[in-house]
């Protein structure tokens, strides 16, 4: 006789053995699914081609009509950018693990969050990327196989944008569409003004500033940009970024001249939200500012945009324009304060489920 026992952590006895022929029952646990943007599998041309194709085919990222965009994507973009981007990824690649820093850090955040819930076997923590590997769909499969019928989905973007938060949620539901027994889902809201987030950022800035051998005249809070037209159509991202910086200023006792907001990582020829980070550091240097620090509050993990673009390209722009001292303040990553903040937000979202 084929008797199967349900995986039902705290209700296992109530469910009991299943009758012959009954399909397996897996329920009663809760998954926490961390999600970030995603990253290529390698630095070679085809790894970058696959990653960029998936990323830049997302209509939340590029809103152009496909008939116009695809010839540009498959023509100009995918013939040149994989090589250039691959060379940039190679500069920051984690050679020990043979993966990008974004992947290493997101995995570590997952492991550390899992450790925080280690004493509660109802909670399972997983991670999945919007583009590339490991996928969100695969993460959901692993969670449901372990008996999760509820999922707290956590897009790791403090500031909401349709280009990040929304498309991560789209991808989650795209996977759920294929499931007969779909788990119940809660999605963690953007946390750009959460006191725990502001406090973690402020303490990280303070700690890193005390380690420097200089006091930066200006600190830039540099966020990833979005096209200006997305902002004009109602994406609240710009407002979320400005509020994060304002709260940081209030907490750190800095004025608008000492802590400024800028936007980086432009893509394409259209206008993006301003002021641009590279143009700002160039201007500051030309005005006689000799020392700056840059922090990236919009990135929950260091990645190509913070390590290569800010600590590499933007540092060089500043130095070439006459700057003398430059510091990059790391993202919260898997730091104590950063993890305590993520855990606090997850525990809040678990209310009523645990
Ligand atoms: C139109 C293009 C893009 C928009 C809009 C965009 C928004 C956006 N992106 C992030 C966070 C990250 N972006 C990263 C890399 C990256 N971004 C784009 C383009 C757009 N991003 C590209 C083409 C790339 C790949 C690298 C390159 O070729 O330059 C990353 C890092 C990934 C990594 O592997 O390290 C992050 C993180 C946010 C927060 C955002 C809008 C708010
Ligand atoms: Fe990006
Ligand atoms: Fe970039």
TrEMBL record:
HAMAP family: Ferrochelatase (MF_00323). It is an enzyme of class 4 (lyase). Belongs to the ferrochelatase family. The keyword Metal-binding applies. One of its GO terms (cellular component) is cytoplasm. GO terms for molecular function: ferrochelatase activity; metal ion binding. Its main location: cytoplasm. It catalyses: heme b + 2 H(+) = protoporphyrin IX + Fe(2+); Fe-coproporphyrin III + 2 H(+) = coproporphyrin III + Fe(2+). It comes from Neoaquamicrobium microcysteis. InterPro entries: Ferrochelatase, Ferrochelatase_AS, Ferrochelatase_C, Ferrochelatase_N. GO terms for biological process: heme biosynthetic process. Catalyzes the ferrous insertion into protoporphyrin IX. This is Ferrochelatase. Its EC number is 4.98.1.1. It is found in: Cytoplasm. Keywords: Cytoplasm, Heme biosynthesis, Iron, Lyase, Metal-binding, Porphyrin biosynthesis. The keyword Lyase applies. Fe(2+) binds at residues 224, 305. Residues 1-22 are annotated as: Disordered. SUPFAM superfamilies: Chelatase (SSF53800). It holds the Pfam family Ferrochelatase.
